[in-house]
């Protein structure tokens, strides 16, 4: 009965969102015992294994999204979206994350067996077998990406978008799948935001490149936000890559609040506030590989900054929400002009 309720929930959300899911099977779902057995592959032909699958629209580009860590469970190491609470959490959070690409392209978000929070953050903090810890999710996303390319992409340009664990998994997908030049040449950009300690060199994977400005294409983009005050955090600390999403530079030139197109925050009901322009400044700390965020004078007393100490990892996307939207559109235009 639980599976039926979840399938009904999926269908309802699809209808409400306007996403077509055309070409997917609505007649079945994968059982919990299958999803919890990581040796059983996820069947991405089933609609219930996608959060969003926008197969029809007039957009010229697609957005393939890997969500960050959204589940925590002491008994189960990996996400099981046949569990109603996990499924509902995904349906609450992911449309908000994907909203940064509203009006940019078709949205594709597969469910994947991400590693739950306790285990994932322990591996990152200890720098201990991180990729092995999140390996099932990487493999799921790799299979979902292949399914998307085969059935939905139809040689369209695409953007990859992930945060935190989702960013880490997508980079591994890029290492393997973008070795194919025919796929790689369709990449507009990969927004792998909140990737912990992004290296400046990908050798021997020389098909991967980092962004240097606001409109280069086929590149990787990331930053890790921190408050002006606070200790070094898990995600920064050293000579790592970072780009400033206010001025799209990789040096330490500070960007004033006039470049802030709009930050958003959560309301108590789970929705987002209206975008607040000119909200903050940003400057790269070159020694830490971190993006230091300071309030604009007008918003120095904003509630967000009351508790802003150390890492601002959870706000990496939302502080620069409309800058991401604007930049994605710019890079798509640059893609078609190259």
Record keyword descriptors for this entry.
single chain, alpha/beta, six-stranded mixed β-sheet, three-stranded mixed β-sheet, 31% helix, disordered N terminus
Nutshell version of this structure?
With 338 residues, the chain is α/β, with parallel strands linked by helices. The protein is built from ten helices and nine strands. The protein is 31% helix and 13% strand.
Number of helices: 10
Q: What does the largest sheet look like?
A: 6 strands, mixed
Regions with pLDDT < 50 over 5+ consecutive residues? 1-18
Shape, please? globular
Structural class: alpha/beta
Helix and strand run: HHEEHEHHHEHHEEEEEHH
Number of strands: 9
Radius of gyration: 19 Å
Tell me what portion of residues adopts beta-strand conformation: 5-15%
The percent range for helix content is 25-40%
- State the end-to-end distance: 52 Å
On the 0 to 100 scale, the average pLDDT is 90
The main sheet orders its strands as 1-3-2-4-5-6
Question: What is this structure's SSE topology?
Answer:
Layout: H1 2-17, H2 32-35, E1 50-53, E2 62-66, H3 84-98, E3 106-110, H4 117-126, H5 130-133, H6 135-153, E4 158-163, H7 165-177, H8 181-184, E5 187-193, E6 219-221, E7 225-227, E8 280-285, E9 290-295, H9 303-306, H10 321-337
Commentary on this structure:
This protein is an alpha/beta fold. It is built from 10 helices and 9 strands. The strands form 2 sheets. A 6-stranded mixed sheet has the order 1-3-2-4-5-6, sandwiched between helices. Strands 7-9-8 form a 3-stranded mixed sheet, with no helix packed on it. Strand 2 (62-66), helix 3 and strand 3 form a beta-alpha-beta unit. The longest helix is centred in the middle third of the chain and has 19 residues, at 135-153. The radius of gyration is 19 Å and the shape is globular.
């Amino acid at each position: 009965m639980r599976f039926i309720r979840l399938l009904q929930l999926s269908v309802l959300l699809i209808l409400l969102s306007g996403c077509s899911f055309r070409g997917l099977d609505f007649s079945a779902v994968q059982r919990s015992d299958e999803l919890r057995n990581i040796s059983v592959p996820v069947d991405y032909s089933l609609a219930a294994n996608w959060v969003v699958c926008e197969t029809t629209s007039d957009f010229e580009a697609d957005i393939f999204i890997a969500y960050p860590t959204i589940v925590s469970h002491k008994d189960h190491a990996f996400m099981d979206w046949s569990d109603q609470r996990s499924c509902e959490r995904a349906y609450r959070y992911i449309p908000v994350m994907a909203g940064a690409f509203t009006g940019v392209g078709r949205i594709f978000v597969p469910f994947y067996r991400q590693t739950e929070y306790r285990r994932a953050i322990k591996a990152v903090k200890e720098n201990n077998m991180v990729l092995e810890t999140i390996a099932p999710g990487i493999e799921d996303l790799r299979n979902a990406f292949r399914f998307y390319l085969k059935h939905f992409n139809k040689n369209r340009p695409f953007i990859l978008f992930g945060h935190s664990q989702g960013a880490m998994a997508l980079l591994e997908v890029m290492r393997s799948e973008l070795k194919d030049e025919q796929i790689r040449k369709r990449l507009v950009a990969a927004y792998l935001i909140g990737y912990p300690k992004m290296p400046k060199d990908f050798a021997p994977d020389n098909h991967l490149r980092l962004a240097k400005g606001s409109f280069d294409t086929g590149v990787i983009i990331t930053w890790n936000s921190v408050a002006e005050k606070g200790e070094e955090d898990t995600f920064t600390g050293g000579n790592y890559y970072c780009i400033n999403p206010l001025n799209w530079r990789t040096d330490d030139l500070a960007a004033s609040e006039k470049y802030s197109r709009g930050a958003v925050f959560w309301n108590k009901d789970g929705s987002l506030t209206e975008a607040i322009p000119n909200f903050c400044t940003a400057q790269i700390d070159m020694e830490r590989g971190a993006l230091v965020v300071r309030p604009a004078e007008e918003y120095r007393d904003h509630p967000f900054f009351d508790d802003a100490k150390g890492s601002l990892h959870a706000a990496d996307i939302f502080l620069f929400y409309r800058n991401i939207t604007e930049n994605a559109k710019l890079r798509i235009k640059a893609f078609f002009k190259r």
